[in-house]
Amino acid sequence: MHLSIVFPTLALLSSAEAAETLLGAYIFHRHGDRTPKALAPANLTSLGYDQVYTSGQYFRSRFLSNSSSKIYKLNSDVVKLSQISVTAPVDNVLQNSAMGFLQGLYPPVGEELNVQTLSNGSKVQTPMNGYQLIPVNAVAQGSGSEDSGWLQDASGCENAELSSNNYFSSSDYTKLLNSTKGFYEELVPVVNATFDPSYVTFKNAYIVYDLINVATIHNTSIPSNATLTPGNLLQTRTLADAHEWGLAYNVSDDMRAMAGMQLAGEILKYMNSTITSGSAGLSSNKLGIQFGAYASFFSFFGLASLPAANPDFMGIPDYASSMVFELFTDAAVPSDGFPATSDLQVRFSFHNGTASNFSEPVAYPLFGGKDLAISWNSFADSLSKFAVTTTQDWCTKCGNTTGTCAPYASSTPAPSSTAKSSGGHSGISAAVGGVIGAFVTLAVILGTLAAAMLIGGLRVVSKKRLAGGSPAVEGVATGKA
User: Fold this and answer.
1) 10 Å Cβ neighbour count for 241?
2) Average pLDDT estimate for 407-436
3) Is domain 17-109+127-417 classified as CATH 3.20.20.70?
4) ω before 41 within 30° of 0 (cis)?
5) Which positions, given as ranges, span the membrane (predicted)?
6) What is the Cα–Cα distance from 267 to 299, expressed in whole angstroms?
7) What does the DSSP 8-state code read for residue 168?
């Protein structure tokens, strides 16, 4: 009975897949294994290099070589730079991860391909057996993220930093800080060569976990190794998950998820360019690839309601994890054009850790839905609700007024006055803010009374921001009290 049901179902699935034409894709990828953040500068390890290279080989087999899932008109062997876009923040680990991935995606082409004939008839072979040079362009958000212990340090967004700081005054944080004191005290002998005992608390859950995790991968001997039982190792990971999720996403305050908003904007813009170039009869913008930190994964997971599909999305993605957005159609593709947008669909898939032909990404429904594929129009509309696509939009949301945001300062609101600082981070406390607010209110009342008694007119005095600019965020990695 089961066989008679399963086989026809598989046949239908195979038939449906065969009818698909993959028109483009966007990959967001985490870096490979690295040295710990606590011992900056972090560097990509040989293991990490191998992880991203292997992942590049997998996506080559999936998008460039496999006849059933090959991206339409994407060059298979010799890269055509107009067809792909590769980006990463200015960060040693992330930039090197991107380059390692590309070596697997477009390997050297050998002596037969990439030979250039000059006007005098002589031929020039590309060095290193046809090694292909593919630029990795820098994105502004996330620079230096792998040397930073504080999740928001690399964001540059003032309101995102303020929002994350609010986590340190939440009841969830306070409960875990107090209930895990004994657990972290047990870990002190394991990490006291790097951290002061006062630093080893839930406040610094990720940095403590990160150091221990790297040690378990690379160190042949670890102080007080008996403490690191499977249960304790799982506990350090689980607490780090909770800590970083609290900093990266909050359902009632989406400013915390600025990294995910920016990623959404980049996905939307690139996939739009795939459609517009295809509609113009051009074979460009086929594959977008971006390398970034787990903060962007977390923020996007929350914004796209992926924990509704699987609660594991609230856990930190492993090294070399990848999420993929595929643009495809079941309709016929004109030889000199592109299907109508109403015929386009998007499918999201994710793989925790290095993808391979033996362990492939799995499709999940986006935005709290049930379908594994949704129409392009629905995808674009849902993404647009939180995507940040312009510098002005980013500056306005973040409350930044200097640097690239200076031209938009007049339309940029000051950071939210409800944002609190805690967990050892600098800024105006609620108590001090209340005192300042009381004096400002008193001044306004006295000014109003004085104005009422004046005969010669009314003077209007503008208020200045109480904090005199955004409060500096003191990184969790510093461990300062």
Assistant:
1) 18
2) 43
3) no
4) yes
5) 430-455
6) 14
7) G
Ordered by start, the domain boundaries in the chain are: 17-109+127-417
For the stretch 121-151, pLDDT in tens is 898 888 888 899 999 998 876 565 665 555 5
| 309, 369 Cβ separation under 8 angstroms | no
Q: The whole model's pTM is what?
A: 0.81
**In which band, very low, low, confident or very high, does the pLDDT at 211 lie, cut at 50, 70 and 90?**
very high
- The phi and psi torsions of 212 (rounded to 5 degrees) equal -70, -40
Cβ–Cβ < 8 Å for 397, 385: no
For 290, the enclosing helix (H) or strand (E) is strand 287-292
Q: Measure the CA–CA gap between 384 and 76, rounded to whole angstroms.
A: 32
CA dihedral 62, 66, 70, 73 (to 10 degrees): 130
C-alpha to C-alpha distance for 249 and 290, rounded to whole angstroms: 21
- Residue 45 structure tokens: 């390890």
Per-residue CA distances from 28 to 239, 242, 316, 459 (Å): 25, 22, 15, 55
Helices (H), 407-464: 430-453
Helix 230-248 × helix 294-303 angle, to 10°: 70
